[in-house]
Write a structure and sequence with these properties.
The chain is α+β, with helices and mostly antiparallel strands. It has helices spanning 7-23, 26-33, 41-51, 69-81, 88-102, 105-116, 131-134, 242-278, 290-317, 324-345, 357-371, 374-384; strands at 122-125, 155-160, 163-174, 181-188, 195-202, 208-212, 222-234, 280-281, 284-285. The chain has twelve helices and nine strands.
Amino acid sequence: MDARFTDEQDEIRRTLRELLGKRCGPEELRAAVDTPAGHDPALWTTLAEQLGLPGLALPESYGGVGCTATELALACEETGRILAPTPLLATAVLAAPLLLALGTDAQRAGLLPRIASGGLTAALAVPGPALATALGLTGHDRHGAWAGGGRSGGVQARRAEGGWQLYGQVDQVLDGHSARLLVVAAHAGGFARSRVLLFLVRGDATGLTRVRQTALDATRPQGRIQLRHVPAELLGDETADALPALARLGDTAAACLAAEAVGAAGRVLERTVEYVGQREQFGRPVGSFQAVKHRLADAYVQVQAARSAAYYAAWAAAREETAGGLALAQALEALRRAAAEGIQLHGGIGFTWEHEAHLYFKRAAGDELLFGPVHRLRAHAADAAHVFEEAGP
């Protein structure tokens, strides 16, 4: 592989970093997460109009930029640096690829250009705390038991008046309280022949109730959705197999999340190094003490190793190879380490809730709850690679 970035990739990173640096400082971030939506619609519009960010990995025929998952992951690295309050993950990383992979020609033509323009935000609703399982990151479930249905909870789909209706509840939906389109995983059919299908639900559909949840990571807003006989449209047709599509999506999503995490880890480490170089103790900068140097050096090595893994995963995802799960595990550990060192080395001010280092630590913890935990990401990758299987005779 050629590890060098292309001129286009470098330009995407540079332009996005400059724009976010001007439009999304710490004060703007905190103001955005305190709004009902949890993100800044004006910033999202700017990113769509000036950079085409929502449609970065969508084909040009649908109004997108026509880039690959590699460019999308590099963009996520830049948004992760400042924890940008946008619906990029929910819309462009999780929902849009499913519409592209499974949607009918009419669904693609009607929805993808609106997503690419930034006018339509979307969210993936997976019942229960099973997003990582549904995406194939922490295990395989060939029957979709995670989707629940019927008396086991989750969401049940049934035919009604020539269409479909959904009934159930999903508690943890990224941007589910504000997205204008929901892609809902639901069980259809009786107990013996039940299968998982994906459905499209408008944000203003009759019978749909949405409430923003209090999440550990406020920069990653979540909503609870309740569906009471909500009219829905089947994504694609009944021959479309949702489970393999979700598994394929999982590796790309993991690569983007890994890149986002290393962007955040690099940023919080930069801020910590800057602080210890200025703060003095016993008449000398704190960063001049050998113990502090060693801690920061260890964190730096971990972040750089995670960055290399994330870049490889992004490259591999564009070629339909699997490396996202391991890269995500390494990136989440690096972010947690860098954020923890930031809190410690900022001293007393670092332990206040108002300090931004806590936002990065919560991002690491929140992502691990949603897409991990780290040990399960690694265990699943080892199982998939048959690492611990005994050799034959």
